[in-house]
Amino acid sequence: MADPHSVLDGVRLFVDQEIRPRAAEFDRNEAIPRDLIRSMAERGYLAAPFPPELGGMGLDPMAYGHTTAEVGRGCSSVRTLLTVHTSVVGETLLRWGTPQQKTRYLPAMARGELLAAFALSEPDVGSDAKAVTTTYSRRGGGFVLNGQKKWISFGLAADILLVLASHGGRTTTFVVDAAKTTRTPIRGMLGVRGSQLATIDFVDVEVSPDDVVGGEGLGFEYVVQSALDFGRASVAWGALGVAQEALDVMMRYARTRRQFGEPIGNFQLIKGILADAVTDVHAACALCERMGAQRANRDLDATIETNMAKYFVSRVAARVTSDAVQVLGANGCSGDHPAERMYRDAKVLEIIEGSSQIQQLLIAKFGLNRYGR
Amino acid sequence: MAIVSEKEKIRNYILRHITVLDEDVVIGDDDDIFELGFVDSMFAMQLVHFVEKESGVAVSSEELTLANFSTVANLHALLLRKCNHG
User: Across the interface, do B65 and A218 touch by the CB < 8 Å criterion?
Assistant: First the structure.
């Protein structure tokens, strides 16, 4: 297993040199260039939590989480690549894939030769994900899929898709060759614009029975829940990265920007904003690390802690980036400054991988079960 | 692991997670908790984690059947199998 500290140092340097300076370009072009993805793959970042025998670095959830946060500091679109490719699809295949699926897909995903995306949402299906209308049916010895998926991050770039489809009231998850689908780009999103969203049409797309993940009929209950759980952990860490970056931007500006003859950080109303941001970021970090420790220990509460971390930290990211824009004033509203992009990116984090309102339902149920009994 | 008390441990685990506002729910060994509507998707995954934590062995994709997780008796049988054979 790779040494987590040296991996993190390497990621930090890579983000400083290769990601942060180009984040505005990715946002403007609405794409992550393939050369960057290749560089990440060469350094092992696309497979950080995979075991070494499958091409990974064997990082535990805490170390992988900190890695994700570092990437999130530099660019939320690149972090989204880790979320969907490595966490949502990769870790789910690692968890529920057959031995053949693992050896067929994961090493190629680690090398960046196969990019993966998660095809769950549809034009009329979001939070109520079990109600997917994309169907599968048996044909010959395999299956055929028909339907449409929408808002699929890296759907344009992906080589394989993890797809949830339904049949007779039950759902099944499949690995699908993306080349058999028709993909249409979705442009002009509020934030995370480099994540190459697509609408994906499936017309009689043939899938081998070898590409059923986790057994037929239980896709939503087990495979999708695992995928969302990995995704929520990743988004929570990514949100922490955005919040930390916004905090740095805000503090740097408050120290150097002078008004009325002194740094604006001297003014009490600005100090109030700064104090809230520091406290928020520290609390978010503590919650992420609590989640990371519980996931590493396979604690029974790890899933709900992940929900809480995703809920809380994504809100912190939205709040702190909004405050960063406020402190920076007109500069913060300019596309020439990263605060503007981070503000747009952070809002998206409150919606993806289960909206804040869905997290609240789950967390409230947990609270009613656990406390005051 | 004291497997004798495991059935009650399973029942208590389920009751603790499904009884939010109704304290009087009773679950028999063979009651199908999925059919009774007690299991949402998140709790379905928690049951997998519970079996893994108790047995110390990962649940495989082949064991991912509704039947294995649908009743206290079936969960107990799955747990026994995993404790004995991994």
Answer: yes
> Residue A119 in 3-state DSSP?
strand
Instruction: Report which secondary-structure segment, H or E, holds A182.
Output: strand A182-185
d(CA A311, CA B26): 33
Q: Which residues of B touch A302 (CB under 8 A)?
A: 49
Task: Give long-range contacts, CB 8 A cutoff, 24+ apart: A357-364.
Answer: A357/A127, A358/A127, A359/A307, A359/A308, A359/A310, A359/A311, A360/A311, A362/A304, A362/A307, A362/B42, A363/A304, A363/A307, A363/A308, A363/A311
Predicted confidence (pLDDT) at residue A273 exceeds the cutoff of 90: yes
Identify the residue whose tokens are 């896709």: A219
The pLDDT tens digits of the residues spanning A190-220 come to: 999 999 999 999 999 999 999 999 989 888 8
Would you give the end-to-end CA distance of chain B in angstroms? Answer: 14
A353 catalytic? Reply is yes
CA distance B62 to chain A (A): 7
**What is the average pLDDT score of chain A?**
97
Q: Residues of A at the B interface (Cβ-Cβ below 8 Å)? A: 96-98, 130, 213-215, 217-218, 220-222, 224-226, 229, 298, 300, 302-303, 362, 365, 368-369
- CA dist., res. B43 & res. B4, Å (int): 24
Q: How far is A286 from chain B (nearest CA, A)?
A: 24
What b/e string do you get for A192-212 counting C-beta neighbours within 10 Å, with b at 16 or more?
A: bbbbbbbbbbbeebebeeebb
pLDDT of A243: 98
This prediction's pTM: 0.96
CB-nearest to A368 from B20, B53, B61 is B20
Cα separation, A170 vs A159, whole angstroms: 26
Whether A250 contacts A323, CB under 8 Å: yes
Q: Do B65 and A368 touch (CB under 8 A)?
A: no
Which helix (H) or strand (E) covers residue A207, if one does?
A: strand A198-207
Searching chain A, which residue's CA lies closest to the CA of residue B16?
A: A369
Alpha helices in A297-355 (DSSP H): 302-328, 330-333, 338-349
Average pLDDT of span A265-273: 98
Per-residue model confidence (pLDDT) at position B84: 83
CA-based nearest residue to A167, from A135, A199, A195: A135
